[in-house]
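Incident review: delayed structure delivery

Summary: a single-chain prediction request sat in the queue longer than the usual turnaround. Root cause was a stuck worker, restarted by the on-call engineer. No data loss occurred. The affected request and its eventual output are reproduced below so the record is complete for anyone auditing the incident later.

Affected input:
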Amino acid sequence: MGKVFARNGEIPARPTVTGVTSFAGRLRWHVQALGFNPLIRTTDRLEALAVLAALLIALIAIPAAAQAGDLVYASSAHTAELQARDRHPVQAQVVDGGGRMPSDVESSASGGPTSVTAQWHEGTRVRTEQITSTSTAKAGESLTVWLDDTGKVVAAPMTADDAELSAAVASGTVWIAIVACGALAVFLIRRGLDRSRDRAWDSALHLLAHNDDGWANRHA
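Output delivered after worker restart:
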């Protein structure tokens, strides 16, 4: 990769710095557009108001997203507590590890869920069942099987890390959804204002060309 040399010994601005500077400049312009300068058009003021409102909504959405994450965490933590109480592990031995999930052959070949036959002891009897394993298991290997209070094979119980991950995903999803709606609203408003500005320019050019006593035609 070739080196980039700057004129007068100046270091070229990084894209990140340039983007931040551009955003700050646009934000400053939108703030100034809400001032009392008579040269600023009404459409510019409306656009600035929409942009600043969207930024304000994005800030307000942070505690709302955090609240959503707290609710999801509380629900997930309660579920994890119930599952930890109602489920227990047993050590099983793989009898046949060559099975594949019928509807997911490709994912099994790439490390996805596989169907294995496992065997374990329940009291004085030996129980053999076909279960789904998240990793490839060969005959003779040991694996952990989770059972509920009725003896049914179930998934491993949710952990505290799973609850935290669910809460983080919920918070991020809520915040992104709110910000995306605000950005879409600004985009639609700006499109409408752009059409209004275009019509205003066309009207002004029409007046300049046909309603100035022929001055524009004489000086063309």
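Verification: The beta strands are 88-96, 114-122, 125-133, 142-147, 153-154.
Action items: add queue-age alerting; document worker restart procedure.
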